[in-house]
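(Fold this chain)
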Amino acid sequence: MSSWWIGVKTDVHAPARDVYETIADYRRGHPRIVPPKYFRNLVVDEGGYGAGTRIRFDMTVLGRTTHCRAVIEEPQPGRVLVERELESGAVTTFEVEPVGDVACLVSIRTEMPRKPGIAGAVEKFLASRVLPRIYREELLRLEDVARGRSRT
């Protein structure tokens, strides 16, 4: 089955270790970076940090709420974290690339299975308009939270 993807990448002015730890911490860090306008009710069902964590959450986009369940993987611990959504097959990857001691380059990228026909075309069109906005907000929140983490 073919797929399509959407992502954003930006500089984050915080140490890569603190940024990654914030993303991977689904009990304290990650809930603070997801924009509450779009993500609610993040619950950790198993684990809580990095690989093996199982979560559920609600995502509201364009007035429609979807209940999601995901499992977390770490193909490259400390650098790449993956959320695999169990129902839709969407895979969101967070990648943290160090840039010196106090900054890093962070990307959020979601790959979706391509639905056939007009429904698939509409989904891709809408997602390409909405997801980058959500991810940019998430990256701004991430920088604030990770910078606070590095000060403590």
